[in-house]
Amino acid sequence: MAQGVLEVDRVSKRYGPVVALRDMTFDVRAGELFGFVGSNGAGKTTTMRIALGVLAADAGEVRWNGAPVTLETRRRIGYMPEERGLYPKMKVLDQLVYLAELHGMPTAAAQRSAQDWIARLGLRDRCDDEVQKLSLGNQQRVQLAAALVHDPDVLVLDEPFSGLDPVAVDVMSQVLREKAAAGVPVVFSSHQLDLVERLCDRVGIVRAGSLVACGTVEELRSGGSVHLVVDAPDATDGWADGLAGVRTLHVEGTRTTLELGPDADDQAVLHAALATGPVREFTRRRPTLTELFRSVVTEEHAA
Is residue 23 part of a domain? Predict the structure, then answer.
């Protein structure tokens, strides 16, 4: 399977009266790290399972290089489920070799690849241990090795950083960067939005089964509202209440973060802040990915 684009095109899925996905559409390009974020139950895992053929879509299509994904295509996808899908009583090395062979690798190549990934992911001392005897973090490392051992052409990872310590996060981040640099499309979901912001070329935000925003982090931030950080040490709670187009996001010590709507006047905010006393900081900035995500979730709960 050559390098190419993984496309999710208007995929919908319903469970009785519950709409899990509604016209889900995005693509993951060759050599791209694509972050897939949303609240619990937003539809991320369902989308991934449909891409892998674990679930059937009610409508829409998943394509690789313009053609519908087939069983043979799926053999070349590396998938890491959020819930651990390993055999608990099987030894780490034996398990990785077995999974590589299931994907069509010859035994000798499977052995070499398994040993390589065991070493790379810091599992050399655990290769003869049963998976059930490993810590949760090491089980997660084995799960990643299982997704990589057959040298896949696409990576689909559901919460790959869950339960990992900072060192393991760094190792996994480097592995994903290397895979993308080699031309592999990589899509992963995560609730660690600072990590998504740092790693990903593009990000898709999912809400209630639909993709509500998609682009580079900078594009998403530029399209978001303007935030204003004001440090007014003598101000009392609610000092900015009543200002047109202004919403208080949070207060930390003497610093207040405000969201400015289209009709907001930052000079009116400055005047109100100065009316309370000295102003030590008055900074306009774009929201972080975490703040954008919170805004989307707030809209979801308000709908």
Answer: yes
